[in-house]
Description:
Elements: H1 3-23, H2 25-32, H3 38-56, H4 62-82, H5 90-116, H6 118-123
Helix pairs in contact: 1-2, 1-3, 2-3, 3-4, 4-5
Amino acid sequence: MNLLRAKRVLGLLSLAVGVTAVAAPRRVTRFLGLTFDDQAMSAFGAREIASGAGLLSPVPPGPWFWMRAGGDLMDLAVLGRAIGRDNPRRKIAYAAFGAVAAIAVVDLAIAIHAARNRREERAAAA
């Protein structure tokens, strides 16, 4: 596994998702059928921006991979609420839940790999 490539790709992905959530929180919540306020969605976006910036910075990426994995769990908890019967956009929420679950598996695998391969993690600090 190439941790340098993983940190760059995941860093850019985090920035893209984060900027979207911060720039258009109401649109994102409405798209998913969520019922919380704009500030909450903006906070989720800020977390994504922070992890993306950390991954793109010239430091060992291990803690930032773990931040992404933890954030995925938070996202899954929120999306779990969105798949209730009362959500007219439940199918989209299910798709988002599945996508985040798949990403969570990848993030967790990369975080574990970085933790077990400290030399490779330090080399990815470029």
